[in-house]
Amino acid sequence: MSLPNKVRLVEVGPRDGLQNEAQPISVADKVRLVDDLTAAGLSYIEVGSFVSPKWVPQMGGSAEVFAQIQRKPGVTYGALAPNLRGFEDALAAGVREIAVFAAASESFSQRNINCSISESLERFVPIMEQAREHGVSVRGYVSCVLGCPYEGQIKPEQVAVVARELHQMGCYEVSLGDTIGTGTAGATRKMFDVVAAHVPRAQLAGHFHDTYGQAVANIYASLLEGIAVFDSSIAGLGGCPYAKGASGNVSTEDVLYMLQGLGIETGIDMELLIAAGQRISAVLGRPSGSRVARARSAQ
To answer: What is the CATH number assigned to the segment(s) 8-298?
Structure first.
């Protein structure tokens, strides 16, 4: 299969990245990050999450962030809304696209959201109904698709069942996440091949963590499978608070560098992207997690 001519990067740094930070981050800094990412040419930015601040303190203030960002036509500003209350809050904040998430691992589902996979999917039914009624698009996430901290390897068929359910419920796109970053290129290709028998490749995306340094290789393997949408995080921010050692979403800068080398169009400006990553890293008081950004700054 030939490589896609164009790839869409879904920027998850403001949500999946910042939600795992220990120190408080101001609304102003979050707004500046989103505006920087818009200026860099990202066409999809996950801005925040409408969950209880008791559970995810860093996502408190998401409504204020949505109220203050400079929205650009043609850019999607999404948010995580895992329950009906979250959906209602997102709707009130003017969000036109939300994301819901399930796991491919029963153990992970129980420990992460205290319910089984089937129960988690049932919870989405009223959200999907409300989303249809209000014309809000819904994107689905499946976590632990290539490995689970409690169960080890996950069978691709298990991933396919959950992805198909989300797709049939009305998720226009399903992002498959290697939450603990243990996946390899061969396993990635096999997983997408199996899932694509149930959900069209054009409606699948990849979400790779770089815990074992395999994220870019896994994205290349996904490209070979015809996947053309990938989640990434500016400066490599974030990981998963429920998976020990799973720090490090793959950095948007590093993914962009590979895509540019392949001649694949993204519409993103590398210099503005690096500057955005350097700015939020300075706010957090640490170097960027992007290898590309570190290499450029050392020149």
So the answer is: 3.20.20.70
Let me know if 171 is a catalytic residue. Answer: no
Q: Residue 244 has what pLDDT? A: 52
Q: What residue ranges of the chain have pLDDT lower than 70?
A: 239-247
Catalytic residue among 144, 148, 171, 240: 240
Q: What is the pLDDT of residue 247?
A: 59
Q: What is the pLDDT of residues 210-230, one digit of tens each?
A: 999 999 999 999 999 999 999
Helices (H) and strands (E) in the chain, counts: 11, 8
DSSP-assigned letter for residue 120:
H
DSSP bridge partners of 45? 11, 77
- pLDDT value of position 238: 84
Residue 246's pLDDT is 45
